[in-house]
Design brief:
The chain contains three helices and four strands. The protein has 110 residues and is α+β, with helices and mostly antiparallel strands. The protein folds into two domains: 45 residues, no CATH class; 56 residues, no CATH class. The strands form two sheets. A two-stranded antiparallel sheet has the order 1-4. Strands 2-3 form a two-stranded antiparallel ribbon. The longest helix is centred in the first third of the chain and has 8 residues. It is elongated and about 50 Å long.
């Protein structure tokens, strides 16, 4: 769970911070840093050797298959992510229901 209140927005921007409780079976967890491989359409290699062997020459099918690593939160590879005790886990879910909202905070970024 992300507990930081760090906001990357211009000073004076109105912000809403939601505290949610979403049932576990409705949440998909993934490695935030590994996720960027999909955004950049890159092959997600777990080692430097794998990256050198496949990396730039990966087919679309190989890339998509490699992206499955994003959902394995037990991967301990210093090459593609942070050490397992420092990874940043993101949670996504399909629908935000009113009953999931436990707290709403309004503030202005500094």
């Amino acid at each position: 769970m992300r507990t930081s209140h760090k906001v990357l927005s211009p000073s004076g921007t109105p912000i809403v911070f939601l505290t949610l409780e979403v049932p576990d079976d409705e949440v998909l967890l993934s490695d935030f840093d590994m996720w960027h491989s999909t955004l950049g359409n890159h092959y997600l290699a777990l080692t430097e050797e794998e990256d050198n062997a496949i990396g730039e020459n990966a087919t679309s099918q190989q890339k998509r298959k490699s992206w499955e690593h994003i959902f394995n939160l037990d991967i301990d590879s210093d090459y593609c992510t942070y050490p397992i005790n420092q990874i940043s886990i993101q949670a996504t879910f399909w629908i935000l229901k009113k009953e999931y909202v436990k707290k709403v905070e309004f503030f202005i970024s500094k």
